[in-house]
Write a structure and sequence with these properties.
The complex is a heterodimer of chains A (324) and B (386).
Chain A lengths: L1 H18 L6 E6 L4 E6 L5 E6 L4 E6 L6 E5 L4 E6 L4 E7 L4 E6 L5 E6 L4 E6 L4 E7 L4 E6 L5 E6 L4 E6 L4 E7 L4 E7 L4 E6 L4 E6 L4 E7 L15 E3 L5 E5 L5 E6 L5 E6 L4 E6 L5 E6 L4 E6 L4 E7 L4 E7 L1
Antiparallel strand pairs in A: 1-2, 1-28, 2-3, 4-5, 5-6, 6-7, 8-9, 9-10, 10-11, 12-13, 13-14, 14-15, 16-17, 17-18, 18-19, 20-21, 21-22, 22-23, 24-25, 25-26, 26-27
Chain B lengths: L2 E8 L10 E10 L19 H15 L4 E10 L6 H10 L2 E5 L2 H8 L8 E4 L16 E3 L4 H15 L4 E5 L3 H16 L4 E6 L10 H10 L6 E5 L19 E3 L4 E3 L10 H12 L5 H20 L4 H8 L27 E5 L2 E6 L28
Parallel strand pairs in B: 2-3, 2-4, 4-5, 5-6, 7-8, 7-9, 9-10
Antiparallel strand pairs in B: 1-3, 11-12, 12-13
The chains are: A mainly beta (324), B alpha/beta (386).
Chain lengths: 324, 386
């Protein structure tokens, strides 16, 4: 069932692209220390817009139909809802304190938000703009993911070093699994059969079998000429069909290319300094990484695994999201 | 009579608890006589160190509730003039895990108690090199960096900036002398030396203000690249800045300092620890708070990973290659297996900003760059850990 529905979605995207030929794809990047988002054209590879946001914008994601963009304004203690066509803030959502990352449930209605200072995950209904639930998790929650079927949400906690498994029906935890130090990012892959968590200080990615919540594999990284302590996996994204994972390795200034079948690292790509997160263009042929310290975005050609260009954005670019 | 306060006792059973493990942690602070300083601008908080242990306890409790692990903190204060060994013995009756805030010689005496054999004690207050060297104890770990780690950090900075011509003023207290000695050692280690040094000697009659004395006092130091001040009690050092005869930077205990922790550290997620701490204690987190936090979290991390409260199990895990503490310093913190010192980056900062973080780029090491700071394996004469 699932592969078929996925196929339909892919077809839908293609259709959308064909029908909007006048509208090039865009990568939206949050600039943590500028209180802005930079909008990059995936065609011209230039910044075409800069919009103001609340304080310290980090997590960013679009609604299913791309008519709204949600932005975690961490120091404003709000999730802002912006009209991406005008850059106008439509309203704020109640988010709990210090929202850092979030994930939009497949129902397009519920945002799962990590409240970093409060050890809480907040669930917000974006339509009624009300908090639906608050779930106690570990110290400094950050990474957020939700399974493709919407049944399971994940929060990772940086100081507790766990992935917390949330049953989205009851909004209760049903498992807590230890990972290596300082987990930062989580993703469900392979139709939700696997869940990956990156550990920044541990320097690893843990692959979980979702059905049993047990560890299936652990991926380590080794960048030539860089001390292992500085190889710190943070954000990661998958190519079409979840074949390869591109993993940001933070202060080592490299991306790793991981074969998602064998869990082997095949390549390292030099990008900007302190690489955080990333987003693909429409056909996933190019990857855009946010480089916090150098204040730019590196464009990577996925097929040749080469960096093509650096695009200057605001100060401390952090989150990235694509819209067609 | 010393005071004993049980701060928090909590055994929380969370979901998926595999076992109920409870760890009582003692916090023993031995009050020391503090000599008067020229300025009263920096009062010493009454809960210095203890507040860090409390924040570490909260972090451990939050994690523990998902695993069925409980933690508690037992605080004991020993007043000036009291014998610290008796309350230490009492505390060791109830727990084998103690965070110590005491002078170096008291730390060694407590570690030597028959009751302390097999315990895990943490030094959170004494930077003396001897405790990591000939005077080391197998049951005493150090979450506070040694003086040498801090002075090595500054020496790396001098090398990087090519500040080769250095002079020093040192105070008269034992802490100042220890810092000055560590600085001389570090300069030698990195191929430098002091061209001049003077002892701060205004003990008689301060006729004019310190700020008027300093230009005269520093006039005969000649020219130099930077002036090192060894004033660990912060008595006169603050008046040296901008008052020197030569317009040169002041480093050491004042000005540009190598510190374990500082409110200006906000990178590497540190802003979260800073705000968690200041929300709970209504003040900034200081070095000794950080050392106590790191000790508490080291125990918590070991309990989390081993699912045990057995001192031997925890000690061998803490000293193993598997242990790593995410300490908000940008890389994992581990313990040196040869003397129990917590390896950690050292911040080089002034009161308004972080300037650099040691080890600085280019200071290489065959196994771990962090071991370019403080006593490396071949240098340490500690044998208790073998």
């Amino acid at each position: 069932m699932l592969p078929i529905s996925k196929h339909v979605i892919a077809g839908g995207t293609a259709f959308l692209l064909c029908s909007t030929t006048t509208h090039a794809g865009e990568i939206w990047v949050t600039n943590e220390k500028d209180d802005t988002v930079s909008v990059i054209s995936t065609e011209t590879l230039e910044v075409i817009q800069t919009y103001e946001t609340g304080e310290r914008p980090r997590g960013i994601t679009f609604s299913k139909d791309f008519s709204r963009v949600y932005i975690c304004a961490s120091d404003s203690d709000a999730v802002q809802v912006m009209d991406p066509n005008t850059g106008k803030i439509l309203h704020d959502l109640p988010s709990g304190e210090d929202p850092e990352q979030f994930v939009l449930h497949p129902d397009d209605k519920h945002l799962y938000i990590a409240n970093e200072d409060d050890a809480i995950t907040t669930v917000v209904d974006v339509e009624s703009r009300k908090v639906v639930a608050q779930i106690d998790v570990g110290v400094e929650p950050e990474g957020m993911a939700v399974s493709p079927d919407g049944m399971v949400a994940i929060t990772t906690s940086e100081t507790t070093n766990m992935a917390h498994w949330i049953d989205t029906t009851t909004q209760q935890l049903f498992a807590n699994t230890l990972v290596d130090s300082r987990p930062r990012h989580a993703e469900f892959v392979k139709d939700g059969s696997e869940m990956w968590v990156s550990s920044e200080i541990g320097g690893t990615i843990t692959v979980f079998d979702v059905a049993t919540q047990t560890e299936k594999a652990k991926i380590s990284f080794e960048v030539q000429g860089v001390h292992p302590d500085r190889v710190q996996p943070v954000g990661f994204e998958f190519t079409e069909g979840d074949t390869y994972a591109f993993v940001a390795l933070g202060p080592s200034n490299h991306l790793a290319v991981v074969n998602a079948e064998t869990y082997e690292v095949e390549d390292y790509i030099l990008v900007g300094r302190r690489v955080w997160h990333m987003a693909f263009n429409a056909d996933r042929s190019r990857l855009f990484t946010t480089n916090g310290v150098s204040g730019d975005v590196t464009v990577v050609d996925v097929a040749s695994r080469k960096a093509l260009k650096s695009i200057k954005v605001g100060r401390f670019p952090w989150g990235a999201a694509f819209r067609p | 009579m010393h005071r004993v306060i049980i701060l928090t006792t909590a055994l929380l059973c969370g979901q998926g608890a595999t076992a109920d493990v409870a760890l009582d942690v003692g916090y023993l602070s031995v009050e020391a006589h503090r000599p008067p300083t020229l300025s009263n601008l920096d009062p010493v908080p009454a809960n210095l160190g203890l507040a860090g242990a409390q924040t570490g306890l909260q972090d451990n409790l939050t994690t523990g509730k998902f695993l069925g692990h409980g933690y508690s903190l037992i605080e004991v204060q020993v007043s000036v003039g009291e014998d610290p060994l008796e309350p230490a013995r009492d505390l060791l009756q109830s727990t084998s895990f103690i965070l110590l805030d005491a002078p170096a010689e008291t730390l060694a005496a407590i570690a030597d108690l028959p009751e302390a054999q097999g315990a895990i004690l943490f030094n959170t207050s004494a930077g003396e090199l001897s405790l990591r060297d000939t005077e080391c104890r197998a049951n005493l770990l150090h979450s506070l960096p040694s003086h040498a780690m801090r002075t090595d950090a500054l020496a790396q900075f001098f090398v990087q900036r090519r500040w080769n011509d250095l002079v020093m003023i040192f105070g008269s207290y034992a802490q100042d002398q220890a810092y000055a000695e560590a600085m001389r050692r570090s300069l030698k280690k990195f191929g430098m030396a002091l061209s001049e040094e003077k002892s701060w000697a205004f003990d008689a009659d301060m006729r004019r203000t310190a700020s008027q004395e300093i230009p005269l006092f520093t006039q005969d130091l000649g020219d130099y690249d930077a002036l090192i001040v060894a004033d660990e009690l912060h008595d006169f050092g603050r008046y040296v800045l901008y008052n020197t005869w030569q317009a040169r930077p002041v480093v050491g205990s004042e000005g540009l300092s190598a510190v374990t922790w500082s409110p200006v550290i906000e990178q590497w997620g540190a802003a979260q620890l800073q705000s968690r701490f200041s929300d709970a204690h209504a003040r900034d987190m200081a070095t000794q708070d950080y050392a106590a936090w790191a000790a508490m979290r080291s125990l918590g991390e070991a309990v989390t990973r081993t699912n045990s409260a057995d001192p031997d199990t925890l000690r061998s895990y803490i000293l193993s290659d598997s242990f790593e503490l995410a300490g908000f310093k940008g890389r994992p913190l581990t313990y040196r297996a040869w003397n129990g010192q917590l390896r950690q980056p050292i911040a080089i900062a002034h009161p308004r900003a972080l300037v650099a973080q040691a080890p600085l780029e280019g200071f290489l090491h065959q196994t771990n760059e962090l071991d370019s700071l403080g006593l490396d394996r071949p240098e340490s004469q500690c044998e208790a850990f073998q």
